[in-house]
Amino acid sequence: MQMGMHTDTERCVRAVRSKDARFDGWFFTAVLTTGIYCRPSCPVVPPKPENMVFHPSAAACQQAGFRACKRCRPDTSPGSPEWNQRADLVARAMRLIADGVVDREGVPGLAGRLGYSTRQVERQLLAELGAGPLALARAQRAQTARLLIETTALPMAQIAFAAGFASIRTFNDTVREVFALPPGELRAPKRQGASTPGALSLRLPFRAPLNPDNLFGHLAATAVPGVEEWRDGSYRRTLRLPYGHGIVALTPNPDHIACRLTLSDPRDLTVAISRCRRLLDLDADPVAIDDQLRADPVLAPLVDKAPGRRVPRTVDEAEFAVRAVLGQQVSTAAARTHAARLVTAYGEPVEDPEGGLTHLFPAPESLAALDPETLAMPRTRRTTFTTLVRRLADGDLRLGVESDWPRTRAELLALPGFGPWTVDVIAMRALGDPDAFLPTDLGIRRAARDLGLPSTPAALTARAAAWRPWRAYAVQYLWATDSHPINFLPV
Fold it and tell me: Is the pLDDT of residue 393 over 50?
């Protein structure tokens, strides 16, 4: 699979005929005779090839006048893996659009974050996706609106503004145009939605296979008390969001991740979903990743034993960077203790009627004001910590979905106390670089020794060249050879 797959008509036809769900999100099938568009795995009888036209995005289908299929619901398919494995302008723009930036800051805000003119951004998105930023954001608003209509009891007027529409009329027109139904008919008459404003349950789709062990095991084993917890088979945590805060519970199921969200402001729904998907790496293409890693005879047994490992990521890049510094050269338990102290002292309190969450993780601005002498860590690490939070608070260092990976790596490496391990773990879990590698990590070196791989960082890096661009996933398989709690789904 690769960029521009929608232009390979023969390959797309084969995927549609085989109803291959792996291709959902890579391209969309518009049917000329019915005026609808579908995902490749749509369960209906495939149309004749001459009646199929392929588009790179749902927004491009909608701009061409096609309506979403009511059977396969293409608007709910996993996102394209392209946006999580690339660091170019289009990929960074798509990550920002998914994070709701166009709705909050407009196209000029999107372009400003990317460091390009609005014309350049629009031109490149149109060339690759067949739709500009406004159309892509509109398609996302329609999807959010449908989700709110079907899963909550919120009045339509509240849904319209929560989904990001500027007016009720635009909301009504868009829903009718995209789904060929007025908003009221998308809500089943007897359906009982969430009675509490801001609380809803939904399903997060993914491409199979997905191995939840290291994904949820890592998040649970490193959970910061008060901010995160494992409770009743779910990973729960607080979320700092643009309009307020939220609490999410994520539960692994065989064919989806169950997601229960409580938001202080429903306008944060799109952002919260996007960040939860990113946290769990749900838009990855595990078949392509595992196929390449399986080509290495050393990794093949590890992949075959438990395919579909994801990279556990983060919902807040700045938070993760702070936690990476706290975790330098200490145990997982010690890192959690350091973080918990900061949370108690500087985090913002929240109420959690359903569990034991008490705070949002402290913002960089709060941490920049603390007295370094209160930090129970060596003086050199205090300097590393205070420099990082000050740079984050001042805006000199920006960590986010729009980050240019090579540039941000260089900026991090220039900070005092930031070596290759810290930079690469931030690149892997916060920036989302799928090729980040940790040859100096103790767990990786131990796994390499036990598997007969080179144990020195330079030799191991050379050996890992064949795993590119998926070395971050190779890290997960290598870590999994250990008995550390991060590798096991909590009970």
Answer: yes
**Which amino acid, 87?**
A
Instruction: Give the strand pairing for 67-68 and 234-240.
Output: unpaired
Q: Which two tokens stand for residue 390?
A: 């000050």
Cα separation of the two ends of the chain: 36
Q: What is the Cα–Cα distance from 105 to 66, expressed in whole angstroms?
A: 28
Q: Compute the distance between CA of residue 488 and CA of residue 485 in angstroms, rounded to an integer.
A: 6
The CA-based diameter of the chain, rounded to the nearest angstrom, is 72
Mean pLDDT of the region 2-12: 75
Contact between 259 and 204 under an 8 Å Cβ cutoff? The reply is: yes
Residues 105-112: contacts with CB within 8 Å, 24+ apart? 107/132, 107/133, 107/134
pTM of the model: 0.89
Nearest to 432 by CA among 468, 475, 474, 401: 401
Given its phi and psi angles, is residue 425 left (phi above 0), alpha (psi -120 to 50 degrees) or beta? alpha
Question: Exposed, middle or buried: residue 255 (CB in 10 Å: 0-12, 13-18, 19+)?
Answer: exposed
Q: How far apart are CA 347 and CA 226, in angstroms?
A: 9
Neighbour-count burial for 177-187, b at 16+ CB within 10 Å, e otherwise:
ebbeeebeebb
- Token pair for residue 140? 């996302």
Long-range contacts of 236-240 (CB under 8 A, 24+ apart): 236/354, 236/355, 236/357, 237/315, 237/357, 238/350, 238/352, 238/357, 238/359, 238/360, 238/361, 239/268, 239/272, 239/275, 239/315, 239/316, 239/360, 240/316, 240/319, 240/360, 240/361, 240/363
Q: Is 394 a catalytic residue?
A: no
57-100 per-position pLDDT tens digit? 898 999 999 999 988 888 777 777 777 778 789 989 999 998 88
Q: What is the pLDDT of residues 191-247, one digit of tens each?
A: 444 444 457 888 888 999 999 999 999 999 999 999 999 999 999 999 999 999 999
The one catalytic residue among 75, 268, 433, 441: 441
* pLDDT (mean) for 161-183: 91
**Is residue 38 annotated as a catalytic residue, yes or no?**
yes
- Active-site residue (options: 12, 24, 38, 61): 38
